[in-house]
Automatic annotation (TrEMBL):
Residues 320-344 are annotated as: Disordered. One of its GO terms (cellular component) is cytosol. GO terms for biological process: cellulose catabolic process. This is Beta-glucosidase.
Amino acid sequence: MSEPVIPVTPATPATPDTFPPAFLWGAATSAYQIEGAVREGGRTPSIWDTFSHTPGKTAGGDTGDIAVDHYHRFRDDVAMMAELGLTAYRFSVSWSRVQPTGRGPAVQVGLDFYRRLVDELLAHGIKPAVTLYHWDLPQELEDAGGWPERDTAYRFAEYAQIVGEALGDRVEQWITLNEPWCSAFLGYGSGVHAPGRTEPAATLRAAHHLNLAHGLGTTALRSVMPARNSVALSLNSSAVRPVSQDPADLAAARKIDDLANGVFHGPILHGAYPRSLFDATASLTDWSYVQDGDLAVIKQPLDALGLNYYTPTLVGAADPAASGPRADGHGSSEHSPWPAADDVAFHQTPGERTEMGWTIDPTGLHELIMRYTREAPGLPLYITENGAAYDDKPDADGRVHDPERIAYLHGHLSAVRRAIADGADVRGYYLWSLMDNFEWAYGYGKRFGAVYVDYATLERTPKSSALWYGQVARSGALPPAVEEVA
């Protein structure tokens, strides 16, 4: 029997130059972004199949029909991970590949794909981390109302139990939901993500039912898995900063912090929504869908918490004379993802930017790690996503040099190491992403991968950042300077 991914005792502290010896060095992906094979093995459409096939919803009309064909190439991809030196791999399960209608018995051929993937990872000494939900709700459940409907949370619990029974004997690290903020606020608020609805009140209903799904799913997983297994969720919590110390700007920051962070970590970590969130959204909803007992179900003890981080958020009070949509870094839309926040203005943070237009600021990652160290003392943390998109291209020799990404990773890993030195119990880091892939509404136009993918041939080429990251993983230490690896 293998040792648990999450040790019972705290990880060995890092030295000033190294990470803890048991620190996990991983990369992350999601099913719809890499698998392809959308019509094989009984798989039915998810909301992202429907959304991406709707004209005008994705850049260039791109879809995940083929993606990078990981479904057929997973063995080669796992061998590549091992060659790079990764010790962990976080992937998601396609709900509609396992349970095509979101209800009823599993399709075993769908589960068999993930069984084979897990076996391949373990054979190469790579610890699998399974994310149950990374935004690809079965379309039939959306047709029945989607996440704004309470029943979807119960369907998720049934799905969690199915996957837990199939893989729980070999997978020890589990994540219920990835970035529920995006599922609720971008899917049902701004509409820039699937299912593309723009209903502010439904956004908040969806957030609550995602929280409920996490609680029910956690209970379902624990009912069928060994006690040694770890159950977590991944939040894309925002490092929200006021543009000034003016009371109006501080109030704006508090409102966005509630909508970005408190709406999830309030009930999940503390068993209560922020009262200020209820007050701010009273014009949209009375929150009567929060039923007796829900908060106790949601506040299941976590074994770990995943944090996804890319860039900080800078806000202030809006100019009453201003009108129209306010950019906030979550894609262009005439609809705001922030319900009841028309009095808030989003400001561009200073500094260098990635191809997404996101400011590079590792201090935000350190800030979040230390915040959750205070919010949930004793709870192990993982950085389950962190990375950057750049306009990567092969050179004349076919090599892909991406020194900007190496600098980005060096800065953010330095922030993680500094947080560990400051007392945070961070146990692993998952680079987003293993390889270039379908980047949601941006199609194939944004490359986050450490591995370059030629979309015409699907050939994989590790970028210089992948070689650099592998060297860091093998040594467990950051080099003092940012240098490419030959």
